[in-house]
Amino acid sequence: MHFMINDQNKNGDVRGFGISLAGMVLVAVLPLLIFGGGASWIVIDQKKAAVAEELTGTTRALLVAVDLELAYQLAAMNILAADADLDSGNLQSFRGTARRYLAAHTEWNDVVLIDPRTHAIVPLTEPQADLVHSAPPMANVDDVARTGHASVLGVMPSGEGWRKPIVQFLVPVMRDGGALFVLSVAMDSAHLNNILFEQRLPETWTGAIIDSRLTLAARSRYPERFVGKRATSGLASRIAASESGMFLAVNQEGQEGYNVFTNSPKSHWSVVIAIPASEVDEPIKLLLDKILLIGGGLIVFALTLTAYIGSRIARQRNTYERSLREETAKSKSAEKEINSLAFYDPLTALPNRRLLFDRLKQCQVTGNRSEKYGALLLIDLDNFKLLNDTFGHDVGDQLLQQVAQKLTACIRESDTVARLGGDEFIVLLEELDSDLDEAAAMTEIVGEKLLASLKGSFQLGNIEHRSSASIGATLFMGNRTSIEELLKQADLAMYKSKEKGRNTLRFFDPVMQTIVLERIALETDLRKAIEENQLVLHYQAQVVGEGRVTGGEALVRWRHPERGMVPPLDFIHLAEDTGLILPLGNWVLETACDQLAIWASQPALAHLTIAVNVSAKQFREVDFVANVLAIVNRTGASPRMLKLELTESMLVDNVDDIIEKMYDLKAKGIGFSLDDFGTGYSSLSYLKRLPLDQLKIDQSFVRDILVDPADAAIAKTIITLANSLGISVIAEGVETDTQKNFLAREGCHAYQGYLFSRPLPIEDFEQFARLI
Q1: Of 95, 304, 362, 534, which has fewest CB within 10 angstroms of its CB?
Q2: Structure pTM?
Q3: For residue 6, what pLDDT is reported?
């Protein structure tokens, strides 16, 4: 309806113009000229109005970007202030935190602390580049300390000690309801120029950002000359009085132009755009002067030209109004898109990490007041990586979108579902109950509901996919626990859920934290053990017949300076999980090869072989073959006396690559034994392709071989299979003569176990081997 009225008014203007012009032709040329002059001003006013609306739309879009940037900077500084550990006076720790924030925010210059009681200034960081922090007005510091609200002071002009303008922020460090310190952060004002550059203003236009003190914070043209200076008096007075509309003024460069500004009710900053006056006035003046000149010469021609002028004016107005509508729509769309990108995940349209943290802070504040518990549930989709790798990321994205919809449908409107990234989602439950047990029960009900909604079938295009999820939950009241710590707690609980078989819900237990801390400490000690030579090899004898020693299996032990001798069961799995198995495995292999080289010079021990266990991670290394051969060559060990033990579980993935590497090493004389045979997943087709020298019957079958018919049958089958393939067989875990005799009757004559010897240090093993 609005546009219909505009069209009617426009058509009426055009008809009125034609009638007036025809009347002037009939009266006299002079009235025509007088009317033409009046029409000139009308058209100029219309042009100015259109330009003013266009400039206003652009300033509003820019102002949205400025407010978002200032809000983002204040949010980052508030987080830094919240992280301040100053209650104990540990200023050095907070300096480290401030430096990390300064490294992450390259636009920041430096950070200082100000004591609001004494106005003492404590530098926290070294200034970047050629900027030095200026002391803010202490009246502003006192205001921030008194109100507890952060403040953007605006642009501090260049001066003695610093050579570029800066934007100064003040953020209170609150403790026990009062400001313990005020955090002062200086940001290079050049960072704000990026907002103007991204708007891509026409070359002749001048855009400027003016702070609440009417000082230029950014300028698209010649920022180095004018940023930090006060706005011109005419512009400053209009901004202070909030006088809207387009006005003519002379800028700092001495050029006359039309100016439009928009004030922010939040930050009290302003955005100004100026366009040269000639761009607005000259084209229209030239056109109308030409029309009046022709009209003064020929009245008849003026009558003919009347229709042309009317249609031209109509087209111009159409063009300007259409452009204005498009620019207004673009401005609103840009504002909406900026807000969406800043706070929402583009794939699922769920709140992102930034918005989640904001809502979680509000929830903590509310919890302090209401003394009710909230809950944080971390949801991780089971086997999502397998779906992505199998069908591609497009299918994975479809699943994430459907999961987001199902999660949202399971919670209250007052609660929040957010996506952290990847296949991880967060559910924030607010205002549950003041009783811990009741809050936990309510959380469990929601968690089970979430699990049930995700356990069903998902139709992903032509693919029907069944999914499940693992959920970790933690409860909190107020801000007694930091946001980062809550996420860690939920993450620990989620991984415990996966360990329990997936598709389950687990609550955080402080015991989990203790286990994790102990594991971290053990990992640190293990790294040090590898570096400081705290590891040692023990050797368990491998014998044939009645006990003749043919070699030994190298078994690593850890001589911990405080824990004593640590068995491999306590640290091998940790080494596998952390990747330390690679340097640990290399150390074991090199130590064993060194020992082989020593034995080669001793006739009584030169016949002994050493079996070394190799992990799956070692075998999957691209340079595994080259690394093994380099160790053998470096130590001078005979490759024929070295035997590498593999487990059946290694044959599940990429068996062709494993076989190729085995043949490369076999060609150099190195032997292979398949350890724990009968407990894994190897097939006969793979077994025939492997260049094995030996099968090792797992001790779990040997232990009950005399009392369990199933174990006895498995052992017999392994012996028969090895003999049929021409592979030797050895049984581990032999502890009694009756076990040995049974195995001997079935055709197994090589043994390893406590019946003969437990794992021994090298000196004891050598003595044992010489005696037997």
Answers
A1: 304
A2: 0.45
A3: 47
